[in-house]
Design goal:
single chain; mainly alpha; five-stranded mixed beta sheet; 10 strands; elongated
């Protein structure tokens, strides 16, 4: 006996052999079933070699208990000890699969299926599995026979006799034999139906590709024809449908022995809305006329497996040619772009990091990349016509369509990920692609894959490493061969032909592949360090360009920037070493004209895209901008030089703001899309308005210093109006302002007025002088008397005018008035002067309200451009900016005197204050805010894409698609974008009619 408190030698040996619960294992070994073997070192060694020794021992005890008599138990024990092949197979299965242990406990004689060990047993095929299923006479016995066959595959898999690809192929062969057996049972139950039709079962998906999982839906398509040429087609299809449905039920329904797997026919034409069985001619007609790109992609794996072999062969012969024409279809490129964006958002957040199949760096990434390249290049190369992922990958590498090193890495990663998937599913024979979180499950998986020192840590490291390889190569394999084709650095290596390179670029969205290849050759050819770095960067950059609406422009712009900065030592180092810089640059260069144009005028602004201390896309505040512009003015020799420097700061900061907006709208690998679209609008409006204020402040200082020294003869202030005053400027907005001055003591009023007018004239001139920097247009049309009135007035003149002559529209316009530059005290006095006008005590009278409504109605009818679609006009159309702003401003005019929150120049802030004061409901506030934000983003998008301001959606398809990408709509969804705008504007217009016109 073991002394109290001391562990037995058996306990210690069990720990050494990998048992995690030695006490329980010791009790099992001391049971009657294993009495004769409890000290046998061979048994302990064999158990210790399994994935889960505890599970294997428990399964063995259950199997021995299930034997019908002592003779059967003795036979099992003798064979177990004497026959190493059986011992390894049986214990290997028991240690890896709880579900198959349950099967053996129910069917105690099935262990005999693991005894045979013949050469043909190493690679069993459909015929062997058909023999194994031959005795099945009903769905229950078919399930038992299926599990018995599955047992033999699992045994050879866990013992390493067959690799993961051979395992997947055998699982597909077993599925083929099972479908044939199920169809035979269905035909036996309905011989009249069987005689009336020819039915072929076409395997799709992983079964068709000879790469099935342990537990997976078996995807099929059915094709049927009358048994006799002259027979009634309708009756034949009805009979075929009955047989197909019965066959599916035989496999899918749960019985006392469980189910086999679901048979899924949803890949058929029209999916679950279409007929289950069609004739061959009906299939062909559908694929010729209606099929989408993904349906041709699915047909890559089509393989006849059961039923009428002649009809199955006819199906493949008729449809395979259409598969290889898919890349010529009109919508192939947008379809591919949509498919290339992983649908990770459909995976629950808690599962994304555990998804082997659909997550980033998962199995789907490898499979999609291989299938896409097959569709593109299989037209001209029949060696690529394989439904098996690894075989197709090998063919792509042999043909030079994928780099050999990349293919080898993907092959290794794919095999490892599939092995993990197999082990996860084998445990309980459940369909799942999630890596378990339980440590015991991870330990069993790691040990089953040969990791024994620290199986959990080793498994997780290997998984992350292989997923990272897939994630890195998923995009690169599309583009690296393009660079090899143009660089031609390794003579003798297989590489893409020029025609194949062009085909691939077209498939990935490039409209001018010949030009794209010239750009690639210019960037990547040669043996210089610069070319070598470009060859490293370009595979990823090309993928990011292809994710945009205009890949050609992105690549062209990248070449221009690289030509301008290629000899600068920091440029390529920034892109190579700072993670965000390269992707940020790709997004900016392919998002439209404005940001690239700003960058081309001073390419060194690329540095802003980095994530180092000197970079950063967060817009700078007004105080910081004014400090920089005023410092630049002090360093300049004259006003021209000073304002040139100020405009240079403006151009750089416009680029920073545009880049931040683009990156926030597109999203990157390191920064998701900004969910709050209002935050992006506020970012742009605030940044551009602050920048305009700083530009005016610097220009004012430059003009005054150049003509008058430090002191102007009159105090001078600039008042922002319109969107400028509301901190809502867009990229293409003019600066709406009023100019106010006040003569200094002792200065003649005429002299003061002349000085003020000269300042304004010179500021406007210097800010519009043609140069590399964008002009800033100053618009003073909101001044008293409009264009007919003086450009500059004294404060007293403003006071007299507003007291005697002010019109309703001027009080309305003054709601946005805010001091921005010049004499701060004078500006404050101006604001004090106009406050009673814009926030009148007692609010507005009914006559004034009617006048405002009349002006609004007249503006809607007169100012809308001829030929414009009112429903899509972001500024003046129903539910557009004007509707929302006039509604909010009416609340300000009527209630601003008593409600402090309404005394703001900002539309969204005033709307929120109206809601808080109970003037607008929460629902109506949300409706108006969403419409205003969307309309503002449409205007910003048009400017970013076209490089010039506009209030309506572009008509050019590429420009419209680019606006859609900015607004969050994927390729091919421009119509959805327009529908969304119409819906949003229509809801807003309903609210406006209720609040403004009621």
């Amino acid at each position: 006996m073991t002394a109290p408190g001391r562990r037995s030698s058996t306990f210690t040996r069990l720990l050494r052999h990998g048992f995690t619960d030695p006490s329980a294992a010791e009790r099992l070994l001391e049971g009657a079933e294993l009495a004769e073997l409890r000290a046998d070192p061979v048994l302990l060694e064999a158990l210790g070699a399994t994935a889960d020794p505890d599970l294997a021992l428990l399964g063995l005890v259950r199997l021995l208990e299930a034997q019908p008599d002592p003779t059967a138990r003795r036979e099992l024990l003798d064979t177990l000890i004497a026959a190493k092949p059986l011992r390894d197979r049986l214990l290997g299965v028991l240690g890896a699969s709880e579900a198959l242990a349950d099967h053996l406990a129910r069917h105690a004689g099935d262990w005999q299926a693991l005894v045979t060990y013949e050469p043909r047993d190493l690679h069993r095929g459909v015929e062997e599995f058909e023999r194994g299923l031959a005795e099945a006479t009903d769905p229950v016995s078919l399930r038992v026979a299926y599990r018995r066959c599955l047992l033999s595959i699992a045994a050879r898999d866990v013992c390493g006799t067959i690799d993961v690809a051979e395992t997947a192929a055998e699982l597909a062969d077993l599925a083929t034999a099972t479908l044939r057996a199920a169809l035979a049972l269905a035909e036996a139950d309905a011989p009249e139906d069987a005689a009336r039709c020819r039915l072929a079962v076409i395997a799709m998906g992983k079964c068709g590709g000879h790469e099935l999982n342990y537990v997976s839906d078996v995807d099929v398509i059915f094709v049927g024809e009358p048994a006799e040429a002259e027979a009634d087609e309708t009756k034949a299809l009805r009979a075929a449908t009955s047989l197909a449905s019965h066959m599916m039920r035989i496999c899918s329904e749960t019985t006392v022995e469980g189910s086999i797997w679901p048979v899924d026919a949803n890949l058929r034409p029209e999916g679950r809305n279409g007929p289950l069985v069609r004739t061959l001619s009906s299939h062909v007609a559908y694929y010729q006329r209606w099929a989408k790109t993904w349906e041709f992609q699915a047909l890559l794996k089509a393989r006849p497996v059961a039923g009428d072999p002649g009809l199955g062969a006819e199906y493949v012969a008729a449809l395979q040619p259409l598969v290889w024409q898919a890349a010529d279809r009109e919508n192939f490129v947008p379809d591919v772009q949509k498919m290339r964006r992983r649908v990770v958002e459909n995976i629950p957040v808690a599962e994304v990091d555990r998804q082997l199949k659909l997550g980033p760096g998962g199995l789907r990434d490898v499979e999609f990349a291989v299938q896409l390249l097959q569709l593109v290049h299989g037209r001209a190369d029949t060696s690529l016509h394989s439904g098996t992922t690894l075989d197709a990958l090998a063919a792509l590498a042999a043909g030079g369509y994928v780099g050999r090193a990349d293919a080898a890495q993907l092959d290794e990663a794919y095999r490892f990920l599939r092995s993990m998937e197999h082990r996860i599913q084998l445990h309980r024979l459940r369909r799942t692609h999630l890596v378990p979180e339980d440590e015991a499950d991870l330990r069993r998986m790691g040990r089953s894959l040969g990791m024994r020192n620290d199986p959990v840590a080793e498994l997780l490291r290997a998984w992350k490493r292989h997923a990272a390889v897939v994630r890195r190569l998923h995009e690169k394999i599309f583009y690296r061969p393009l660079l090899d084709a143009v660089a031609q650095l390794a003579p003798g290596e297989a590489r893409l032909s020029p025609e194949a390179a062009r085909e691939r670029l077209v498939a990935l969205g490039y409209a001018d592949p010949a030009a794209a290849l010239r750009h690639l050759e210019a960037l990547a050819s040669g043996v210089t360090r610069k070319a070598a770095i470009q060859r490293t960067l370009l595979p990823v950059l090309l993928g990011w360009f292809a994710d945009s609406a205009d890949p050609d422009t992105g690549l062209l712009n990248f070449r221009k920037v690289s030509d301008a900065l290629g000899t600068t030592p920091w440029y390529l180092r920034l892109l190579r070493d700072e993670g965000a810089a390269a992707e940020n640059l790709a997004r900016v260069l392919s998002a439209g004209r404005l940001a690239p144009d700003l960058l081309m005028r001073a390419p060194e602004a690329v540095a802003l895209l980095g994530d180092g201390v000197a970079g950063g896309l967060r817009p700078r505040g007004r105080a910081q901008l004014e400090q920089e512009t005023l410092a630049a003015v002090r360093r300049a020799d004259d006003a021209v030089q000073a304002v040139t420097a100020v405009r240079g700061v403006r151009r750089r900061e416009l680029f920073r703001t545009a880049a931040a907006d683009i990156v926030g709208s597109y999203g990157t690998e390191s920064q998701p899309v900004e969910a709050d679209q209002g935050a992006l609008v506020d970012l742009v409006g605030g940044a551009v308005s602050d920048l305009t204020a700083a530009t005016l402040a610097g220009t004012l200082r430059a003009v005054v210093r150049d003509k008058w020294g430090d002191v102007l003869p009159t105090r001078f202030a600039i008042i922002a109006m319109g969107r400028f005053g509301g901190h809502e400027l867009g990229y293409g907005s003019d600066a709406d302002v009023l100019f106010v001055h006040e003569p200094r003591d002792g200065v003649d009023e005429r002299e003061a007025g002349d000085a003020a007018n000269k300042v304004v004239s010179e500021m406007r001139r210097l800010l519009q002088v043609p140069s590399a920097d964008p002009p800033l247009l100053i618009d003073a049309d909101l001044r008293p008397e409009g264009r007919s009135g003086p450009l500059v007035r004294t404060l007293k003149s403003y006071e007299a005018y507003y007291r005697r002559w002010s019109l309703g529209w001027e009080s309305h316009a003054l709601l946005r008035a805010e001091f921005v530059a010049g004499d701060e005290e004078l500006g404050a006095r101006f604001i004090e002067l106009v406050d009673p006008l814009r926030y009148p005590a007692g609010g507005l009278g009914e006559d004034a309200v009617r006048e405002i409504r009349r002006l609004k109605a007249r503006m809607e009818s007169e100012r809308l451009p001829r030929g414009a679609d009112p429903k899509l006009h972001a500024k003046l159309g129903p539910g557009g900016l004007s509707d929302v702003e006039w509604t909010v401003q009416l609340f300000q005019l009527r209630h601003g005197h008593e409600i402090a929150g309404l005394r703001t120049t900002r539309t969204r802030a005033a709307l929120a204050a109206a809601r808080d004061a109970g003037l607008v409901s929460e629902e109506n506030t949300t409706t108006l805010d969403e419409a205003w934000v969307l309309a503002t983003r449409v205007r910003n998008a048009v400017m970013l894409v076209r490089g010039r301001a506009g209030d309506t959606f572009p008509t050019d398809p590429r420009e419209l698609a680019a606006v859609g990408r900015y607004l969050g709509h994927g390729s091919g969804h421009a119509g959805d974008m327009l529908d969304e705008y119409r819906r949003t504007a229509r809801r807003a217009r309903t609210v406006v009619e209720e609040l403004f016109y009621a």
